[in-house]
Write a structure and sequence with these properties.
By secondary structure, this protein is an alpha/beta fold. It is built from 13 helices and 9 strands.
Length: about 325
């Protein structure tokens, strides 16, 4: 592996703490992990004896399962904690939950919570490395890493690419982490959505271009990413109805035509098919939505490997 930097013991709260070279180290490592995942026997012994906990206080399909698969493929022991069915239901707080798990000998925590900052709290109470698997509207750095890795693999680099991110920008932690990471890697990011679903000063804070017209956002784009309309977080009547949203901001074949001929279509999932993206686009030859999920396992294997101090693949394969 080239560019291998030492990330042992690091936390991952968001991508602002990581340099371009460190992100490239994660990508190079993920490339090796992806090859391992194509083998018949998809397992290496590098994290044997380590214990990883997925601590999820919010629902998840792809992040939790891909982290668990990633840890298992590296031979770590994995414990899956979800607040449903735990003593959180009896009133136990985060501090005592973490003290309890830590007393059983945990080496690393993967944390999802609806409140921003909880991953840092878990580090404070445990003293162990923590990977943020999504905290409120704040950040989702492993999703951003797998999104950027998916583009990097196809295009060779993110430098100079026009990346349009479209939809419910206001409620999205994915967009915030991607804006930090993509800008760092040299991409020109355009965010697009209704004014009521756009955070104030997103252009000033993140250096992204902010537009409200879908055709302007998509014209000559190298990558178009649709974001999920977060129906569970819409409590303030921020748009008139789903069909109005789809008419103005839904990705259709017709709309995508003004992007570059080799445009990549992405979505972090879960998708509302027919709302932010039509099936004709989600299932088109330009779509790499399913490959994003595949890459999620490789990126999470790379992170666990690097942060828990795994041995290089050539020594363990
Ligand atoms: N993209 C994402 O975070 O999906 P899940 O909520 O299914 O983990």
């Amino acid at each position: 592996m080239k560019n291998t930097l030492n990330l042992t013991g690091r936390n991952l709260y968001d991508l602002d703490d990581y340099s371009v070279e460190e992100i490239e180290t994660i990508f190079e490592t993920a490339k090796v992990m992806k090859e391992i995942n194509k083998r018949d026997y998809k397992k290496i012994p590098t994290l044997r004896g380590k214990t990883v906990v997925t601590l999820f206080f919010e629902d998840s399909t792809r992040t939790r399962i891909s982290f668990e698969l990633a840890a298992k493929r590296l031979s770590a022991d994995v414990v899956s904690f979800t607040s449903a069915g735990s003593s959180v239901k009896k009133g136990e707080g985060i501090q005592d939950t973490v003290y309890t798990l830590n007393a059983m000998g945990v080496d690393l925590y993967i944390v999802r919570h609806s409140c921003p900052g909880v991953p840092k709290l878990v580090n404070k109470y445990s003293g162990k490395p923590v990977l943020n698997a999504g905290d409120g509207r704040h950040a989702h750095p492993t999703q951003a890493l797998l999104d950027m890795f998916s583009i990097w693999e196809k295009k060779g680099s993110l430098k100079g690419l026009k990346i349009a991110i479209v939809g419910d920008i206001l409620h999205s932690r994915v967009v915030r982490s991607n804006l930090i990471g993509m800008k760092k890697m040299g991409a020109n990011v355009v965010v697009c959505g209704p004014r009521t679903l756009m955070p104030p000063k997103i252009d000033e804070v993140y250096g992204a271009q902010c537009v409200y017209d879908l055709d302007t956002a998509i014209k000559d784009a190298d990558v178009v990413m649709a974001l999920r309309m977060q129906l569970e977080r819409q409590t303030e009547g921020l748009f008139p109805g789903l069909s109005e949203f789809t008419n103005r901001y839904g990705l259709s074949k017709k709309v995508i035509r003004s992007a570059k001929g080799d445009v990549l279509i992405m979505h972090p999932g879960p998708m509302n098919r027919g709302v932010e993206i039509l099936p004709e686009v989600a299932d088109s030859d330009h779509s790499i939505i399913i490959e994003q999920v595949t890459n999620g396992v490789a990126i999470r294997m790379a992170l666990l490997f690097l942060i828990l101090g795994g041995k290089p693949e050539r020594e363990v394969a």
